[in-house]
Write the structure tokens for this entry.
Amino acid sequence: MDSTKIIPVTIGLAGLGIMLLAVSESSKNKKAGAYLDASLKDSSFNAKEVATMLYSAMKEANFTNTEKRKTIFTALTGVTEAQFSKVITAFGNRYYNTLTGNTYFALWQTPTKHPLKVWLKEELSTEDYQLLKSNYPKQL
């Protein structure tokens, strides 16, 4: 075979190899970038903090319903369904008096712990609870 024909073929194969390597590295970087972006979003989210805000808004009887509603919706603004699941876990089961709508119990009452779902259902209007349920259908 003539050496003048081998050189263009060799250069073409080398170029193809470099191009494939570049595409491979590019896709790895895109995947890594997506992973890093997702981890940055999750690292700025604090489920325990959101759960504490919700608890603080709902535990007292002296908040007006408007104040409670505003605080609840503010705390949950931008919270994804996966993050809300973490909020439910962070909230856990806490003492709640379904008769009085707060954390105070009379001597004859047996304190009962309830999950966040019960707290929200008791504290919000039916319409507001349905709105939350439409945002978090798997949890509520």
Notes: The two ends are 75 Å apart (CA to CA).
